[in-house]
Amino acid sequence: MASASSKSAKSLFNESKARLADRVQINVNNIASVARQIQRGSKSNEILMHSARNFALQQHALENTDQNIRKLQVNAVQLKLQYEPISKNATLMEELNEQVRSMQR
Q: Which residues cross the membrane (predicted)?
């Protein structure tokens, strides 16, 4: 009788073990399903793609800004070089105007 009882206990243990494994598998599948739903709901992939696209656009804008700043620096140097002769000529014009006034008197 002891062997029938131990066979029964063994059978019950194996059934319990199988049911537990089934429930664990079901729970794992449910967790995976919840994770997929959360990912779809959060739209994290879309947000990441949008952020990457904006980052790339910002880099292009920064490069254009850098080029424009360099051009402005060149223009500033050229204007400075042109300012000196213009200033000198303005001073000479004032002197010339004074000479013309004195000649008219």
A: none
More confident residue, 5 or 93: 93
11-56: pLDDT as tens digits: 877 888 889 899 999 999 999 999 888 877 777 778 888 888 998 8
Output the pTM of the full model.
Answer: 0.44
Question: Locate tokens 């620096």: which residue?
Answer: 73
Cα-based distances in Å from 65 to 60, 61, 89:
9, 6, 36
Q: How many angstroms separate the CA atoms of 74 and 98, rounded? A: 37
Residue in the structure block whose two tokens are 């696209």:
53
Name, in order, each residue with C-beta under 8 angstroms of 45's C-beta and a sequence gap of 6 or more. Answer: 39
Please report, in angstroms and rounded to a whole number, the separation of the first and last CA atoms in the chain: 149
d(C-alpha 53, C-alpha 64), whole Å: 17
